[in-house]
Amino acid sequence: MCIMYRPPESSKYLSNDFNAHLHEMLGKASEKSQETILLGDLNVNFLKQDNKDLKSILNIFGYKQMIQKPTRIAEASETLIDVILTNKPSNVVKTEVIPTSIGDHDMIGCARKINHLRFKPRQIICRDYKSYLPEAMNNDLEAVDWTYFHCCRHVNEAWSIMKSILSNIFDRHAPKICKNTLVKQRCQETYQ
């Protein structure tokens, strides 16, 4: 997020290289491929087709002006010079121009989505430990005759029998259940 101010054309503080500096700054921001929001007073009327150089720079980097109403209303003119620009307009839910008597500019604001990813339900299988009693499970494990595994000739056979016995004990004390969960769409491939 960046808050910026561009002095008006008549100001002695307006840099002759403002557009070049803006182009360089937006270039660095776009290298990271992240959402960027620019807020501020650019002293460029976005209701008119003037200052095409600056607007062209914003267009090159894919920034969209989100405010559509005048932000500075004088007796003889209405201008939109206070802006909210973003390269991800789908993340901005609402914009507002709020009248104020503090100065000659109205306030601007926006509401951004907290999370724009869609969620899809996914079923997972897990164990239910609501009625799990560790002592009872320990008693069942101690009751198993483990000497049988020493007599098996093949590791796979011993493992299969041991796995079956352990699964039965776990199923008795912490049965498997199916749950619906919400998983971010972008991450879903990881879990499947």
Explain how this protein is built:
31% of the residues lie in helices and 27% in strands. The strands form 4 sheets. It has a 4-stranded mixed sheet, with no helix packed on it. Strands 4-5 form a two-stranded antiparallel ribbon. A two-stranded antiparallel sheet has the order 7-8. It has 6 helices and 10 strands; from the N terminus they run βαβαβββββββαααβα. The protein is an alpha+beta fold. It starts with a strand and ends with a helix. It is elongated. The protein has 2 domains: 2-112, Endonuclease/exonuclease/phosphatase (Deoxyribonuclease I, Chain A); 119-191, no CATH class.
Write the layout of secondary structure elements.
Layout lengths: L1 E4 L12 H14 L5 E5 L10 H9 L3 E2 L6 E2 L4 E2 L2 E5 L5 E7 L8 E6 L6 E9 L6 H10 L4 H4 L3 H19 L2 E9 L3 H4 L1
Helix pairs in contact: 1-2, 3-5
Kindly summarize this structure in a few lines.
The protein is α+β, with helices and mostly antiparallel strands. It is 31% helix and 27% strand. It contains six helices and ten strands; from the N terminus they run βαβαβββββββαααβα.
Task: Name its key features.
two-stranded antiparallel ribbon, 27% strand, alpha+beta, four-stranded mixed β-sheet, Deoxyribonuclease I, Chain A, 192 residues, 31% helix
